[in-house]
Amino acid sequence: MTGTTSERRLDLEREVLRGVADAVGSDPDLRVVCSRVAEAVRCGRTTRDVYVYLYEDASDDLLLVGATESPAAREVGTLRVPYGDGVTGWVAASRESYVVAGEPSSDPHFLPYPGIGEERYGAIFSVPVVSSADELVGCITVWATPGDGFAAHEVPLVEHVASLVATCLERERLREQVRVLGRTEEGLRELGELVASRAPVGRVVDRAAALALAGLGADLVVALVADPSGADRMVVALASGSDPERRAPAAAVRRGLLEVDHDLRRARITWQVAAERVTRALEGRSQPLATAAVRSGPDELGRIEAHVLGPGRRPTAPAGLLPAIAGQVGVATRLGIALEELADRNGLTWFLRAVTSGRLAGDDLRRRAEALGLDRAAAHVFVVACTSGRTASSAQLDTVLQRASLPAGTLTGATPHQAVAVVPWPSASTSVDALRRPLLRACDHVRSAGAALTVGVSRPAPSVDGFADALAEAREAMSVASSLPEPAGVFTLDDVGHHLLLSRVSGVAGVRDRYAVAVESIAEYDRVRGTELLGTVATYLHLRSRSAAARDLVVHRNTLAQRLTRASQLSGFDVSAPDAWFPLQLALQVHLARSGVPGGGSQDVRPLDD
Question: Which residues form the GAF domain (predicted)?
Fold first, then answer.
């Protein structure tokens, strides 16, 4: 009997060592190598599962990089054990093997990780993997099923395996780091060449986001870049993958960021406001990896930020990589603006950019206006247009305004996503209503092509000194109007007054009274549960009748009552009480404006005496 046991032990050791020898250096992917080492240690025994961890000093934890076929196999590359925590973490910290011969959950060092099937096991041991320089490389952890305890030779055998693979794992880890650094260096070189070749800023930002995504090992990169012309841009890069725990968060994040991008393209918000909304959209859904400002000299032109989605995973971000990428984007942005200015030095687009940024004022402003053929002493009206729905280029927008039969002497120009017209006007006191008819015809023309044209019109500027304010006024009217349920049309600030107030309040993060908190609580409940409580409350507040609201929502009155009761429980007060109607409607409108969701329609605020 003794001889048979000894022979089995020797056979096991030979098979394990042969499998380890075959695994070492068998694949350039370190995870594949580690999984093969784990299978070699298991040696076909269904009573054992083996995990291989690598230590990452930057994050001071152990990352699962290899596992036998088990529930934990899907956590390879994701599961992290803090240094010093749990059996594996304790072994890493003490550099000594540790055995729990029975009931692992009763051991003081045991730390459960839900979802990886640890309840299947009745014993565990872990051994450290240490390099010849006495540096921690990782750990090998072995589990046994209940009733199949460890033989006396198993721990020494795995310790021997750890000493054999230590050099290999350290070497492969360093090789992988060198490969990543090499790819990153090549990416930075290509990005620099792209900037030097005077490539369009959009192309540079796209390439920069992709490089940051790969170089940082991130799931998400958001780049926000300013342009004084009003054409601030946002680029979102999302890593592709098959991990279902990241696909769902990625889809949810993408929807929220697309809304921000839409508003930024329509010049409804600046990149700074977009950055705040991105932060809110990602709150609780991601872990920030790194953030870097996009600068050109003292000017801050934007920012780039990298995130990981889902719990657990936090790759080590190479120091200085994101600032280097952001620096290239800053150079490209400034260079692009300078080249456009040189090409259009005497054109309306450059003039509008300079007016917006404040670089033109006083005598310089008057001289430039005269060079364009503008009477510096006469009144002018600014018209700004954008489209929604089917994509239309700024050049097409410019053509639409050129064909709008505007008064003689009108100048038109285009910036990305906008077209601008400077219209000579009889006097500062003359109404701008005469402009509505030709501009509404332009709206009808664009509508026939399947898009909506939103036009903002300023009050007359009495002289060129008022150009900056008039241009900002027209843009703001267009921006607010473009968020309406029916954005097609011609709008002044007077037309969108209460919507403007709501949009301004929505940008104040500190506005959090009981009604705002109630709306946010209901909206979050809807998001998590997939319900429609907020829409139900909005419809009820508009109609102020349970019967009418039930008919409008096509639900039974009892269903409506249940929804309102649940909304009241979430709010902490009765949402159907008359004294809550008006402030709750205002809070709802602020929430819609803040989240970028079009309001109005059945959710317009009604006064209490309706």
Answer: 29-179
Give the other-Cβ count within 10 Å of 238's Cβ.
19
531, two tokens: 């319900």
Strand order across the 286-296 sheet: 233-238, 220-225, 299-309, 286-296
Taking residues 189-213, what's their average pLDDT?
A: 84
The residue to which tokens 């993408």 are assigned:
254
pLDDT digits (tens, 9 = 90+) for 382-414: 999 988 765 444 446 667 887 788 888 888 887
pLDDT over threshold 70, residue 242: no
Would you say 251 and 235 are in contact if contact means Cβ atoms under 8 Å apart?
no
In angstroms, rounded to a whole number, what is the distance separating the alpha carbons of residues 311 and 316?
Answer: 15
**Which of 382, 389, 445, 448 shows the shortest CA–CA distance to 413?**
382
Dump pLDDT digits (tens) for 175-198. Answer: 777 777 777 788 888 888 888 888
Average pLDDT, the chain: 81
Q: In this structure, what DSSP letter does residue 414 have?
A: E
> Which of 518, 510, 488, 483 minimizes the C-alpha distance to 498?
483
Whole-angstrom distance, CA of residue 125 vs CA of residue 121: 11
- What is 67-134 written as a DSSP string? E-SSGGGGGTTT-EEETTSHHHHHHHHHTS-EEE-S-GGGSTT----TTS-GGG-SEEEEEEEE-TTS
Domain segments of the chain as ranges: 2-176, 198-341, 373-495, 514-603
The CATH number of the domain covering residues in 373-495: 3.30.70.270
Topology agreement, domain 2-176 and domain 198-341: yes
CATH of domain 2-176: 3.30.450.40
Instruction: Look at the alpha carbons of 84, 115, 47, 100 in this order and tell me if their dihedral is positive or negative.
Output: positive
Kindly give, in sequence order, each residue whose CB lies less than 8 Å from that of residue 135, ignoring residues fewer than 6 positions away: 170
One-letter amino acid identity for 297?
G
Amino acid identity at 366: R
Question: What type of residue sits at position 530?
Answer: G
Please tell me the predicted confidence (pLDDT) of residue 606: 41
How many other C-beta atoms are found inside a 10 Å radius of the C-beta of residue 599?
Answer: 22
CATH class of 198-341: alpha beta
Mean pLDDT across 471-492: 85
- Determine the average pLDDT of the residues in 33-49: 90
Confidence of residue 374 (pLDDT cuts 50, 70, 90): confident
User: Whole-angstrom Cα distance, residue 379 to residue 430?
Assistant: 10
Query: Largest Cα–Cα distance in the chain?
Result: 113
Residue 203 scores a pLDDT above 50: yes
597 pLDDT more than 60: no
Which pTM value belongs to this model? Answer: 0.52
By the 8 A CB rule, do 413 and 347 touch? yes
Tell me how far the alpha carbon of residue 34 is from its chain's centroid. 33
Q: How much of the chain, in percent, has pLDDT values that exceed 90?
A: 14
Q: Which CATH number, 2.60.120.380, 1.10.10.10, 1.10.10.2840, 3.90.1200.10, labels domain 514-603?
A: 1.10.10.2840
